[in-house]
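Provenance

Sequences were taken from public entries as deposited. Structures were produced by running a predictor on each sequence independently, with no templates supplied. The record for YitT family protein from Citroniella saccharovorans is shown for reference.
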Amino acid sequence: MGKFLKKLFIITFAMIFVSAGIYYLWIPLNLAPGGTTGLTVIIKSFFPGLSVSLALGCINIFLLLCGFIFIGKEFGGWTIYSSIVLSGIIKLFEIFYPANKPLVDNTLLCLIFGGICVGLGIGIVFNQNASTGGTDIVAKILNKYYHISLSNAVLIADLTITIVATFIVGLEIGMYSMLGIMINSIIIDKVISGFNTRIKMLIISDKYDDINVFLNKEVGRGTTIYDAEGGFGYSKKKVVTTVLAKAEYVKAKQYIGMIDPNAFIITNSVNEVVGEGFTYEKIV
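Predicted structure for YitT family protein:
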């Protein structure tokens, strides 16, 4: 229950960023950087009086049905929740603080900061093994049936929507929107990689046995120990290697410094770890 509530809170918090970026920074300037946002801009051009939240809701319901039919249930539950929260938060914005005009008159600023807000929120949601709906579902369908990588599938969907929207909102706004796709993608990648960054440690110490036990028992991470020979004095050494989360790395470094101040440690960041103790993901 605790993990469920934590995930619920994180996704809800993330959707506030997505909603704010869409409603206050993109929609007022007719920016259409792909996704359901771009579809909403296209639909609103034909039905100017249509509520943004209603348009987003209808689009997401249709895509969610497609997702359940073509993809499955496990991923769909949280996607439904995210989509409902997105439309609900935007509806609250419409009621209590409607966007009668853009927050600022500078289109480029709205595009950049909108991309940051939306990308940050989507990145957090992706990291919780969920999605905000929209082109994420289209991308998964393209991936499943046409074996297109997810990143390329999202790009294809967003660019298609943006190109169509360009005929409605004009070439200049369309070009801004294409730039928005790139900004949004970069932010999402940075957020996801930031959450998933791990620290690889290579430790050379006479206290290797104590360090190994500490890493196994106290930190809860596996290790690899192998023999090495010093290049200067040809002395025999034991090398301990492991991969840790950032908080675990700090704990391990403090312990090693306490029991062996002369230990030699090399660290580097790792963006993906697949195996026991870490999350397996389907490679596409």
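The CA atoms of residues 42 and 68 lie 25 Å apart.
The first strand starts at residue 198 and ends at 204.
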